[in-house]
Amino acid sequence: MQIPDLLLISLAEQCLYVYSGKQLLHSYAISSAKNGPGETSGSGCTPRGWHQVRAKIGAGLALGAVLRGRRWTGEVWTAELHEQFPGRDWILTRILWLSGLEPGRNRLGSCDTFQRYIYIHGTPDCEPMSQPESHGCIRMRNADVLELFEQVPVHCRVLIGEARQAELASMF
């Protein structure tokens, strides 16, 4: 099995591509920020540029496990639980916590991806994919984020950009 060394996220295509070297291993539908791309803290936007997976959270939890403040609440998402908390930004199953690698763009100061708590995480399967709907993070289907979590090592590089896959792939 090849170990991924790059996650390429195309905001234009609302897709996450998994690479090992120059070889594309897999792709997943995602949902990025409803507010579009941007790096400023409090903007509700998805930060662009080079990042890394800084931490992996949720190993061993059930599919649909509810996470708040990067901790398991003891709950597993259900439609009934969703109805009880209709405005909640659901973070489910696993978290890949991102950290920016470009000082002044997505690292340090008011644009720090890590301090903004920007994750790749699971979301309820009733939420739409392939369209921007998140509060800044990268949302994925629960089964997809579980599969990705099991493959991706800590410090794996992540490139988030507005271009399509082919153009972004030419950057590495």
Automatic annotation (TrEMBL):
Pathway: Cell wall biogenesis; peptidoglycan biosynthesis. Keywords: Cell shape, Cell wall biogenesis/degradation, Glycosyltransferase, Hydrolase, Lipoprotein, Peptidoglycan synthesis, Transferase. Residues 5-161 form the L,D-TPase catalytic domain. Coiled coil: none annotated. The active site is at H121 (proton donor/acceptor), C137 (nucleophile). It comes from the Bacteria. GO terms for molecular function: glycosyltransferase activity; peptidoglycan L,D-transpeptidase activity. GO terms for cellular component: extracellular region. GO terms for biological process: cell wall organization; peptidoglycan-protein cross-linking; regulation of cell shape. PANTHER family: L,D-TRANSPEPTIDASE, L,D-TRANSPEPTIDASE ERFK_SRFK-RELATED. Belongs to the YkuD family. This is Lipoprotein-anchoring transpeptidase ErfK/SrfK. It comes from Pseudomonas fluvialis.
